Input
Amino acid sequence: MKLERVTRDPQAVPFPLVFGALAILCTVAAAILVRIPGAWLLTPLRCPFLALTGLPCPTCGGTRAFAALAGGNLWRALLLNPLVTVTVVGILAAAAGSLWRRLTRRFALRFSLNRREEFALRGALATAAALHWTFLILRR
Amino acid sequence: MYCPGCGKEIPEGYSGPNCPSCGASFVQRQAIETGPAGIPWEDRSRLGFLNALLATLRLCLSDPTRFFSDLPKRENLGSAIQYLLLLTWLGALGGILWSWVLKPFQLAFLKSLGMNAPEQSWAGGMEGLFTVVVAVMIPILVLITTFIWTGIVHVFLWILGGAKEGYEATLRVYAYSRGSTALFEWIPVCGGLVAFIWSLILQIIGLSRVHEIGGGKAALAVLLPLALCCVIIAAIVLAFLGAIMALLGISASA
Output
């Protein structure tokens, strides 16, 4: 793995900041959504995958995990949906890092992996996703 | 000046055809910057707004392979987003109109299937106000869902080893695919479904051309995330089929 400092292209879209803003927006929206009485909603908040198969889908509990994150309860969020929680925390950390580097006028950072490392990371991600789903199914 | 490939600053006075750090070609970059002839929307200042819009729609829907082969991979992201927002907003207005007109029939369909529609506790005026708010907020909602969806697709593409170009390339493919099919929502009843399926096909073609990967890998990257919620689509299709069958049954017995 190689970590390089690169000069920021002023024309480039700051994607870490965009995704960070989205993560915050979704967290706030979820915190509001779980407080709305069910009768007010245009569509019922039920997972069709769960309703039809009896098994949770990989994102089941995601909205409640977002809401738990909004309340600062990281452990509860992890128990509700580890994948969503880890992804959101990762995005927020990357966005905070990017924002800090921009504000302090530091170089941007770029990670690069060789083929072997990239292959290993892909496998690890796929395995983690499968383990996550297994956890959700077993926990039910 | 910065290298388009690695982002490093190019030393002043350097005139080589490739980046001294990563070897990326500047000739290709210049070709991209001049804008390919195949994307009329990105040349709308010369062609005129309406001509460029119609030509892009025609080309994307009738010859997607050529369209996405000509698509710049990094430049003009703003143009692609404008195209997406304009057309999805126009399309969604059609969807909202038809959902208003057909609402009593949809409720009758659900009842004929033995399904109870969620009871609305809102007054009629509030519901109208909510619809107006949604209509105004469509571009924001589209922008949010676009970033989330393309982010998921790009991660799947990367896991499958197909992300040969950056995230922007995936975003541009989605913007043109979704934008070009959005107006199908003006077709009553099945317009949304037609737009959705056609957009998926365009995304698969677009990703395979832009990332220069096989169609199978592109299809997996688009369909795998959907596979997890495909039950939703299957349920919608079954509901439609059931409703039609129920209607036929009613008319046969009448």
